[in-house]
Amino acid sequence: MTNSWTDIRNTDLVVIMGGNAAEAHPCGFKWVTEAKANRGAKLIVVDPRFTRSASVADFYAPIRQGTDIAFLLGVMKYCIENNKVHWDYVKAFTNAPYIVKDGFDYQDGLFTGYDEAKRDYNKSTWEYQLGPDGYVVSDDTLENPRCVWGLLKKHVSVYTPEMVERICGTPKDKFLKVAQMISETSSPTKTMTSMYALGWTQHSKGSQNIRAMAMLQLILGNIGMRGGGMNALRGHSNIQGLTDLGLMSNLIPGYLTIPTDKEVSFDAYMSTRGFKPLRPNQMSYWQNYKKFFVSFQKAMWGSAATAENDFAYDWLPKLDVPTYDVLRAFELMHDGKMNGYFCQGFNPLLSFPNRRKITDALSKLKFLVVMDPLQTETARFWQNHGEYNDVESAKIQTEVIELPTTCFAEDTGSLTNSGRWLQWHWAGGTPPGEAKNDTWIMAQLYLRLKALYQKEGGKVSEPILNLDWRYKDPGDPTSDELAKEVNGYATEDITDPNDATKVVLAKGKQVVSFAALRDDGKTACGCWIYSGCYNEAGNNMARRDTSDPDSTGAYAKWAWSWPVNRRILYNRASADMNGNPWDPTRKLLWWDGTKWTGYDVPDIAPTAKPDVVGPFIMNPEGTARLFTRGMMRDGPFPAHYEPFESPVVNVLAPKIRGNPASRVFKDDMAQFGDAKEFPYAATSYRLTEHFHFWTKHNEVNASLQPEFFVEISEQLAKEKGIKGGGWVRIWSNRGSIKAKAVVTKRITPLQCDGKTVHIVGIPLHWGFTGAAKKGFGPNSLTPYVGDADIETPEYKAFLVNIEPIAGPVA
After folding, report:
1. Which residues contact 320 (CB under 8 A, 6 or more apart)?
2. How far is the C-alpha of 32 from the C-alpha of 501, rounded, in Å?
């Protein structure tokens, strides 16, 4: 989230697209109801189903899954044509005025530079024009057709209300009502907040779904504002923390990047991470990258990381491909190119696409280690459970090792919520049986691995032998020790640059924040964005002060928010070029003549003059990007692409299937289904009564939602002869499942490009372990393809067929 859960109460309009907060985030949804009750805020829900969120919305509009970009580009066009643009914000705080290189264009569904064989772009034209001073050329009048604003207007011009209806199936009058309500928040005294979740990320253009809404929010002037922002709703209590600490295979903690095999030296690595400002006087805060990186290396290898060995740069792994995401990992496994797999805290057999391929891949491993507090289907993938897991156990030679772990209620430590708040919690119980903390298990593995290297030697043993492992009990590091290491500390006495005799931070002391980190090896920090969470003031994550001056919703003394306890990112943008709040009734930050002050930690240097330094300090431009340059694989603007399996062709680019920049493995391309054989558009979702695959082990939850079902419209049920409560078979080009049918008014057919499109909803909480009845899940049917930028699988839009069948004999 750019903002926080508690800030949602400050909004005038909530738009839920790509999520279902009332169902999947019921506790956080209370802030929506508070905004409605106390501010008169309105709630819009745009979704293929009439969800629980829609049931309490002020306005609901249906949409075909996978067409959100067309909808949002249509809203942008509406705002531009109706002069519903926060012009002062757009001109000053976005890259709208910047001139783009000649040669860049978009035609027939493709941007300039596409290579069909590589499914990739040459992005050399996706850049700004630079002047002789090295800075971006700008046209503050926005009249140059090559400026970002001119190119954006051209790009969205095709997305008329009629075209949106044709693509999305959203009735024109409903689309126009949504567009009108959204456009009113272009006023400086109105804000809108976007709430989204996996309904946007789990698409082959998921990153661009989010980009499109972020662009709309910038046009309206809603980023950095109280009650505004882009608010991602995380699906677990610590998914944000997992991402922050390096979830993705190409990242290390704090969103630093792992070197590639072409970056053979530290100097080569840093040469592409200089982040020189692209406009005069801008901070381009990533210029501090080297400080963050060297401090991370010191946290990893301590005294063994020195200036002489480039702070152990050679000991970091080097990527030979862009990422080793889950799709690539299981592709390698499926090809017999992976020997072992550690599965810690998730359930790939039910979570990853094309379950049959996942089963085959796991069957080719030599060993599988599962760390989990509960029995999972992945740990039992080799067991035959009849039609629910129809495998030949005797032919599977994979050795499976289960290491029982504790669950969150048995751990002490921090959880990072969707709003970036690190909240400390304490163990509420002791683990059963042989269950151990994950940290204990990993420490034991490390110590035993190190002992083997010491005894037997081995290639490139230095990264293992030299890890800085100075914990009181090396076999069981405590959460406090790890948190302090993550926060960062001085490895040597640090003196005042103006007085070498004055020690400003003694060796071993915690740094106050990432502002104290250095690139000379005198500081260590496990994750720079978390620096400040556990400093000399103590464990800031454990703070429980509920004070909230002037009821801003910041709660600045409750827990700790990254970075530096800032509650709203880009908050300098909440004030105009003179430093005065856009909305005096909703003040957040303001310039007092000498410095920034207000209710939040300024997201800018405290003395940076408002008419000089831009609010988006991480970007070399100092502004936000409506045009992303060459930073995304599939285009500097979002564009409508159909899902890889779609009931209709792309009306704007009929020859293009799916996202043209998405990676597709050879065998998976052949498994995409066709609308002639699989005419119905399916999607997956979750239920309030269950939490992923955990709660099916609990008899109460299993009783509340005991049985796998699919949801279809009354019209489709009539067409196919399906009765409510009757059994159906649902199949795709990859698998077949059985379920009870729920026939409902919550789903209605849509008219898309002259064709009736029926939607099939498939929840995901069942399997063959636990207290609930055995059942299937959507991943038996979903295609093995992901988002072009981060490879999140396309679970939310795929094709199926459905028919009534006789139920099982009682």
Report:
1. 260, 261
2. 55
Task: Quote the longest CA-to-CA distance of the chain.
Answer: 87
> Residues 741-760: pLDDT tens digits?
999 999 999 999 999 999 99
Distance CA 783, CA 345 (A): 23
pLDDT tens per residue, range 325-357: 999 999 999 999 999 999 998 999 999 999 999
Report helix, strand or coil for 37. Answer: helix
Residue 484 in tokens: 């302090």
Q: Which two tokens stand for residue 516?
A: 């104290």
Tokens of 136: 């971006």
Task: Report pLDDT digits (tens) over 709-722.
Answer: 999 999 999 999 99
CB burial of 170-184 (b: ≥16 within 10 Å; e: otherwise) equals bbeebbbebbebbbe
396 in Cβ contact with 363 (< 8 Å): yes
Long-range contacts of 509-517 (CB under 8 A, 24+ apart): 509/536, 510/484, 510/534, 510/535, 510/536, 511/487, 511/535, 512/536, 512/537, 513/564, 514/288, 514/291, 514/292, 514/488, 514/563, 514/564, 515/564, 516/488, 517/288, 517/291, 517/292, 517/295, 517/488
What confidence score (pLDDT) does residue 247 get?
Answer: 80
Of 536, 552, 485, 670, the residue nearest 227 (C-alpha): 552
Count CB atoms within 10 A of the CB of residue 329.
Answer: 17
- Distance in Å from the first CA to the final CA of the chain: 49
The pLDDT assigned to 246 comes to 85
No. of H helices and E strands in the chain? 22, 33
Rounded to a whole number of angstroms, the CA Rg of the chain reads: 27
Residues whose CB falls within 8 Å of the CB of residue 593, separated by 6 or more in sequence, listed in order: none
- The model carries a pTM of 0.97
Residue 810 pLDDT more than 70? no
